[in-house]
Specification:
Order of helices and strands: HHHHHH
Distance between the termini: 31 Å
Largest sheet: none
Mean pLDDT: 90
Bound molecules: zinc ion
Strand content: under 5%
């Protein structure tokens, strides 16, 4: 009964409503996020299509330190160019994983809390929102979906 009384007061009720809205919004935007991430990945790979494909881990990547691989250097430069704040989270995915669209999407998420995630189903709303914002590709779709979720 004590727990019920706590949740029956106005403040937790508002909190629950907000949590529910975030939960529903996340579920609504997820399919579109997955699809956009595949498109984005295809476009990024396209920029290095005239180089030999590489799946090596080149260690720590930074925004401007040379990478001893033309393929990954082109991908890195394209990712920076697309990133809205031009500040990808390189630690979220090493270069050997960049052939996977989900791992490239992680480069557009926050720099903490996502490096061990293996699929979009493990990504919380904040991670999806950061990806959406930083890859700058989706404004109209997301606005529509957010409205529907509301
Ligand atoms: Zn490489």
């Amino acid at each position: 009964m004590a727990a019920y009384r706590i949740f029956a007061s106005p403040e937790p009720q508002n909190w629950l409503k907000q949590w529910r809205a975030v939960f529903i919004t996340r579920k609504a935007i997820l399919p579109s996020v997955k699809k956009k991430s595949r498109h984005l990945h295809t476009n990024i790979l396209q920029k290095a299509s005239n180089e030999q494909t590489c799946s090596l881990d080149h260690g720590r990547i930074s925004d401007n330190k040379p990478i001893p691989c033309r393929y990954h250097e082109k991908l890195r430069n394209e990712i920076i160019a697309i990133h809205k704040r031009m500040k990808p989270s390189w630690r979220n995915a090493s270069t050997d994983k960049w052939l996977d669209s989900f791992d490239v999407a992680k480069l557009f998420m926050q720099s903490a809390g996502y490096e061990d995630k293996r699929s979009f189903d493990e990504i919380d709303f904040n991670g999806l929102a950061a990806f959406i914002y930083n890859c700058g590709e989706f404004t109209s779709t997301v606005e529509t979906l957010s409205d529907e979720a509301r």
